[in-house]
Amino acid sequence: MVDRIADPWGERTPYGPGQQWPVRVDRYLADGRTDADVDRWVQSASVLHSNGDALDIAVADGRIVGVRGRVVDRINRGRVDPKDLYGWQANHSPDRLTRPLVRDGGRLVETDWDTAMGRIVARSKDLLDGPGGWGHFGFYTSGQLFLEEYYTLGVIGKAGLGTPHMDGNTRLCTATAAASMKASFGTDGQPGSYTDVDHCDAIALWGHNVAETQTVLWMRMLDRRRGPNPPAMLAVDPRATPVAREADLHLAVRNGTNVALMNGLLREIIRQGWYDNDYVDAHTLGFEELCRIVDGYPPSRVADICDVPAADVERAAELLGTSQRLLSTVLQGFYQSNQATAAACAVNNLHLIRAMIGRPGAGIYQMNGQPTAQNNRETGADGDLPGLRNWDNERHVEELARLWNVEVDTIPHWAPPTHAMQIFRYAEQGSIKLLWISATNPAVSLPELHRIRQILTRPELFVVVQDLFLTETAELADVVLPAATWGEKTGTFTSVDRTVHISDKAVDPPGEARPDLDIFLDYARRMDFRDRDGQPLIDWSGPEEVFEAWKECSRGRPCDYTGITYEKLRGGSGIQWPCTDEHPDGTERLYTDGHFHTDPDYCETYGHDLATGAEFTEAEYRAKEPHGRAFLHTVDYQPSPEVPDDEHPLLLTTGRTVYQFHTRTKTGRAPQLNQAAPDVWVELNPADAARFGIAEGDLVGVSSTRGAIQARARLCGIRPGVVFLPFHYGYFDQDPAARTPRAANELTITAWDPVSKQPLFKVAAVAVTKLADGRGVPSPAPTVGGSAPPAGADVPPTVGGPAAEATSGKE
Amino acid sequence: MHLAHYLGLLHRAQVNLADAFRQVAEAHAEEPDVEHLCQQQAKRCDAHAEQLHPFVVRYSEDAPDEPDRLHSQLFTGTRTGGIGVLRDLQDLYLMAAECDITWTVVGQAAYGARDEELLAVVRRCEGETAIQLKWLRTRMKAAAPQALVVAD
User: Fold this and answer.
1) pLDDT value at residue B66
2) Where in chain A is the domain with CATH 3.40.50.740?
3) Is residue B127 in a domain?
4) What is the pLDDT of residues A104-153, one digit of tens each?
5) A141: closest CA among A506, A458, A517, A529?
6) Domain with CATH 2.20.25.90 in chain A
7) Architecture of the domain defined by A2-92
8) Domain assignment present for B72
9) Within a domain: residue B69?
10) A182, A378 in Cβ contact below 8 A?
11) Where in chain A is the domain with CATH 3.40.228.10?
12) Which run of H or E residues covers position A67?
């Protein structure tokens, strides 16, 4: 038995370079059940983080009773993240939405589907009537639906209504991953494979607390670290995360200075001759310009800007520059920070100039924050066109028009699809009049929440929310649609390393809740969208039909699914795209021959100026004659839009704990997870805490120019001058009459990266003050993870106890 | 030699553009990208003006009187609303376009004057002005349909 709350990563199974990662099967069955009590196991994969771990759902008496890892799968080899071990219990939560709700007389009241859908359709038809009607519609979706649902929504929006105002909360988590890969390699698509961990001799984690965000990937890294010939490890993070503690070298940079650090590292690597001149000549463009810019970042200047020792910059460059098989992973410390796309591109540059791409161990994971973010990007329910097509390439748009049998100009392609923050701005100004939010909770997760609440409560804005629970967002809706969730519907989704999994229906949804796909198909039917020949635009009735249609859309594109079927996905391991007749088993790594997706007829973008987001034209792009070479984009460091001052002397960064996901919609309803991290806390460095007279457990007010919240203090290893708040905590489980402000996003700034349009969650200036004495009671922060107190602190350890007992072993 | 007049024209155009970028940034703080990038570009214009200044001084020593009607006034203040931001960006575009063509003219004159130092400044700065034009065009293209066709 193992308590996976006390030890989220479980027992080590060490292995050496080039060996296969040993199997370890994790399992949790509730209420003391054993395998003998399970009626059937239903194949699925994880939806509570982005790793894509394959698991089976245990069903007994028509209910989910537990999960176990799938030993045959390439990603997890049987392991399960603690959020997945316990999080499924939220499916059975008694406060699931089971009937549609509509707003009548200021209150949400239960109704039937006909009434609820009837209201949406009546409003839609009314808005669509007249010139520019398309522009009144906005869709804000998720990183947690299935591929089939996104694709259907994409066709409804782009070919049915013809609106460019579609985006996902993927904008908050993964937009920069996509933007940086488009910029460097020509299209989206992870070059690497998770098996690169098995082969690498160095791992660099750029703003990526993988130990808490993708625990199974961290287990793989730890198992290499405990085996023979372990990889060296570099961590860049202002917090003392488990990754930073494990790493051989930790650079606790000042938030918002990543580009200066990257430029300095590239300068050292070039000056020491640790780059591959032949590869640079044959496969890249822009090396001279890169050299010119990074030359201005000697270690002493980097040390000043980033506030790290110059000697550590040199040591980091040596670790990176002398490795033979370098693996990099990048996440929110880069993506949600100042100069996000430029910093992420700089990691690509590092790999390109060292030829560390396209072979075992030499890989890049521009990570995703959510389980199905990749599919949103592929299918075009977010700010992209389906099939990783280029909105500015008329031929690409014509392909879609042919596939859907609609006029080319029905599909909005006069500008890039509207990004999430701009969608909310149009809603604020009143030109978007219907906002349909599915499977996400912007009233907790977007920046500057008082503004978001104001927008969602505008009387002129008709808000539809499709979710499992009455979230903080759903409370403000005009129509609430009860959705089925994971385990209650069938569909596919794709991991960071392009591995496609199927998730089959295990049980029926509660009450009248319906799969998101059925809701979208019902809307399409009621709206009676037609193609050019007067036939129904969408004639699908179930997920497999949608998947087959999507395969045609993906044909010939980087994310080619044409060799995958539902049948092939069942029984064995997931399959990596592209998967075609020529590559029926999928493709482990991209760019193995150094030929990139930058051909002008194939690429997903004609490129941007990274400092402003200015778009280049097709003619300008063609003039660069990329010929399959990758781009080395480099820019100078510029300070964040907001830096500390006398009134707000500290920098706020936000993030996750291993026990919670997103806005706790599910994990907050799983007892083991919720008890491990029940309430918000604020992390302070002991030196800062002493300056403000704050001790462990004290109630602290944290304020910015946008708002103020209260949280109990955890004194820990975060760098001086920086405070951390987990962004998970909203208000759904507080008494509506007595809500205490505690959501981190009350404080964050409305600002975004000029290229990826990802909001800057890591660089708000804040002040802290002590509000009340903690009287020696420690804060509710877990002792596991980035919030671990210093050794010897009088804080009881986070444990799960008997209720969290799981099994783990070789089977 | 009349180069001093064009240098003066360009210098003043850069100063005016910096000022206009700042006014637009402040007037449209509710469009955070417009605010942030206008502030950023204002600083670029400051730097351009600063780099031009020594040449303005140097060439003005042997310049005849400035002809009439050399300077033009393109900016008369900001506007409000969805169309307002579009029109303000359009003003900035026209002002940046004036800078752009003036860099070209000054660059040509720098060749004629065999002034390598001035030519280096033109080469450094004209690309940045071109990016300003591109960004303004990108932002306006995205905003135009919603502001002109969709908004009430």
Assistant:
1) 66
2) 101-173+372-490+510-554
3) yes
4) 989 999 999 999 999 999 999 999 998 899 999 999 999 999 999 999 99
5) A517
6) 2-92
7) Single Sheet (2.20)
8) no
9) no
10) no
11) 175-367
12) strand A63-69
Cβ partners under 8 Å of residue A235, min gap 6: A205, A241, A243, A244, A246, A247, A249, A250, A251
- Establish whether the linkage from the previous residue to A639 is cis, with ω within 30° of 0: no
| Residue at B81 is within a domain | yes
Is the ipTM above a cut-off of 0.85? yes
Q: Do A611 and B40 touch (CB under 8 A)?
A: yes
Interface test with A, best of B124, B129, B132, B134 (most A CBs within 10 A): B134
> Residue A431: what pLDDT?
97
CATH topology of domain A101-173+372-490+510-554: Rossmann fold (3.40.50)
pLDDT of A16: 98
Interface touch A426/B146, C-beta < 8 Å: yes
Give per-residue pLDDT as tens, B47-69: 999 999 999 999 987 777 766 66
Amino acid identity of residue A32, one-letter, is: G
pLDDT above 90: residue A369: no
CATH class for the region spanning A175-367? alpha beta
Identify all chain B residues contacting A134, using CB atoms and an 8 Å cutoff.
150
Q: Among A431, A614, A752, whose Cβ lies nearest the Cβ of B151?
A: A431
Grouping H, G, I as helix, E, B as strand and the rest as coil, residue A60 is strand
Q: How far apart are CA A242 and CA A655, in angstroms?
A: 14
* Chain A / chain B CB contacts < 8 angstroms: 69
Pick from B41, B133, B138 the residue to mutate for testing the A interface (most A CBs within 10 Å). Answer: B138
Q: What is the mean pLDDT of chain A?
A: 97
Query: Which residues in chain B touch residue A616, judged by CB atoms under 8 angstroms apart?
Result: 134
Determine the structural domain holding residue B31 and report its residue range: 3-60+77-150
Q: How far apart are CA A413 and CA A397, in angstroms?
A: 7
Q: How many residues does chain A have?
A: 811
CA-based nearest distance B142→chain A, Å:
5
Over residues A691-749, the pLDDT tens digits come to 999 999 999 999 999 999 999 999 999 999 999 999 999 999 999 888 999 999 999 99
Which of the residue ranges A237-241, A290-294, A381-385, A426-430 would you say has the lowest mean pLDDT? A381-385
Q: pLDDT tens digits for A419-468?
A: 999 999 999 999 999 999 999 999 999 999 999 999 999 999 999 999 99
CB contact under 8 A, A132 and B145: yes
CATH 2.40.40.20 for domain A650-780, yes or no, is: yes
Quote the pLDDT of residue B67: 65
Distances (CA, A) of A139 to A163, A253, A380, A447, A603: 9, 37, 12, 18, 26
**Residue B33 touches partner A, C-beta closer than 8 Å:** yes
- Supply the CATH number for residue B48's domain: 1.20.1260.10
> pLDDT of A404-417, one tens digit each?
999 999 999 999 99
Residue type, A506: A
**What is the domain count for chain B?**
1
